[in-house]
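Quick one: structure for this chain?
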Amino acid sequence: MAVSSVSSSSSSSIYGNRNVISGLASGMDTESMIENMVSGIKSKIDSQKQDQQILLWQQEAYRSISDQLVQISQKYTSYTSTTNLMSSAFFQPSIITSLGKYADMISASGSTNSDIEIGSVTQLAQNETITFKGLTGQTSIDPEKISAGKDVSLTGKADVSNLAGQQLSFKYGNESFSITFDSNREYNDLDDVVDEINKQLGNASITLGDDTITMDSKVKAQVVDSLGPDGKPTGDQTIAFTFVEGENESNTLEVLSYSSTSALEALHLSAGDKLNGSGVLASRAPVTKDDLTSEKYVSDVLAGASMTVTYNGTTATIKMPEKGSDEYKEIFGAGDDATAAEKMTKYLQTQFDQAFGYGRITVDNAGKDGAFKPTFSVKESDTLSIDSGTLNVIGKGGILGIDRGASNRVNVNKTLGDMYGTVETSQDGETIIGLGGGMSAITDENGKVKVDKNGKALYAFEINGVKIGEYTADTTLQTIINDINNNAQAGVKVNYSATADQFVFSSTHGGEGGRIAIGDTTSDNAQNLAAQMFGSVKYTGSTISEIVIDGQSIVPSFTDGSYTDATNGVSIIKGHDAQMTAYINGVEKTLTSATNTFDIDGFKVTANGTFTAENGERVSFNSKVDTDKIVDAIKSFVEDYNKVLAEINDQYSTQPDHKKEYLPLTDDQKADMSEKQIEEYEAKAKEGILFNDRDLGNLANSLRFVFSDSKFSEIGIEVSTDYSDKGKISLDENKLREMLESDPEKVSSVFSDPLVYNETTDSQGKTTSSVNSAESGVMAVLKVQLDKYAATTGSTKGILIEKAGSQYSPLALLQNTMQTQIDNIDKVIDSLTEKLNDKIDYYTSKFTKLETLIAQMNSQSSYLASLGGGSY
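Got it. Here's what it folds into:
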């Protein structure tokens, strides 16, 4: 196809951003002239691109074939595949039927050459299990009610937090991040505020280069005491942000404008405040208790507020009366606290009754002197939680003093500090925050408490002599549960049942080998947090001999392998092995197993119940091959084999159109065609791209003779006699099924037998070997060809992989014969393109100078003409 004449678009593509004077003075079409002058170089570039495109199409065609060969190899000859036709195990009997009176008590899988019968199962396996009722030392939970934490005057005012749930936003370098003040926390002083900021800095993360960092590694907050002229503290305090690395810090920290206004005002910060190097970003004025809270009418805070409540798995939203409604006026217009509290109690009772049913949850008022302090009572067997609620109403700092997540059960999402409270101690001039409830932290040989980077005391948690972790008051119970369950070495799993309010510890080591030992101290002599939270568990031999809960010793007395102490809320189920009597080739054997599955020489027998059979009632087994599984796999293989064979033959035998040469389109040619025209042209151009390719021809011949032996006909596989099919095979499913029922070993042999070699010795005594296809398994014979042409591993890859690469061999994808040719053409194109640009620049410069000279001559001529005309 001829290149079209130069148009404005083609000129633009050639000249790029060059400023070309287009014959304004001379009247010449300089663009067309330069286009013609460089057309020879441009034609060479187009020719190279066409050669490169042909290589890319050929590479694509080779990869399509090699990918299918790799997929066949992975699917039907890999030992990791579930349809490995090269493995004799795939054809082994796998459908096992239990026979006899107690057949429903036994199931089995696998294969064996032994005669196996099961005479009895006297005991099923049981994992060691210990159940604890709730947590030791946590007295804040009442199993029958949730209570508000403070008295409230409904007709008066109350302090509400200016920080709870509010946000501070910052920009560090070019990255932005935000911290949010916990809405379930009280901020009584600046120490609480700083502690929360540093905690949230540890939760905030940004990406720097390839690393993700938490902001507490870059920034910290602290309380600064103001000093008077005499150098003594005045009692005023401010909050100050500094960089951890001080003057070595190269970035800037800036307070952003979308921070919460109330948070900025409370801390006396402003949007745009910046921190640099060793400087300080500090409050502009002292921060007082009055800054941290605001006094508001209780009626205004409660108006329209809500709380989300879950009762026995059903969740509903309980709403306070909207401001101005009849209920609102009746409650808050009562005139005195006692009447308002009584009416609010009745109002809430109605809301709970309508949400969950009448009489399910009882609302009472425990306030003194007319104050409102609601309690929500249920039966001990019921579960109740207040999951969330309106800011400044629900939450530790809310006016009702009800925690978010408050429950009559353990809330595993709460921190240890929430559950046991916190205490402050001083060490080396620093304040340490530890757990209340008498919990003992880790100490060193000098008696000093071990702390984390935020000054929080650390507590060691250990089970079965394995350290699960070290935790602080900020650690949630769910974190500890996850750590236990993810620690395979400890060999214990734990879950919490809210309905029963029970922590259930189970050994992951089945049978008698399981342990759930919890020492009073850890292996490095620290007080064990596990014992403090649940209780210590001591063993004598393989049996639990003592449990100590909150200082009280319990010596279990087992009955039928179990023990229950309802008073102390602990129960134990001893671990024991499963026991079975089996008759193997007539020989009686007593077997034990940590699980209910017994492995008898690869034949897996699973007990589902206990029984003792008389001689004639023993459980026996009948096995047969899984015909459907094998037929489906062979059917799928035939389809995949025929598909790739058809593509190989099609690529090899399809001739290009000899009447017209279909070279790849150039960019100029594509510019004048529609997408559909381009698609149709390129489809035609790709025809015959691998015609008469020697490697494909050899591959096709090799595959054609894989199924040529007569043994395949016996199992239902025939090679087509139609020449146009060129070696395709067909499958007679009925014949294959019949053979699998009558002689499954024959089918297995045809597919999975190993390679057999014939050896011949010539007259010079040289011995050579060749594959005996008639006696070898077909998959082993096929695997030789698959590896020869499509091996993706090893120093030498398959022929097609070496030639064109493959997605299944990342290294060969970039390093193959055709890719090298493609890359070399790229270098030629780059060189020609550079030459083209130099020529265009050269001619453009010359014509620009010519146009400039002609313009000057025209100007002089006009000037002289004007002089001559003026003399008349």
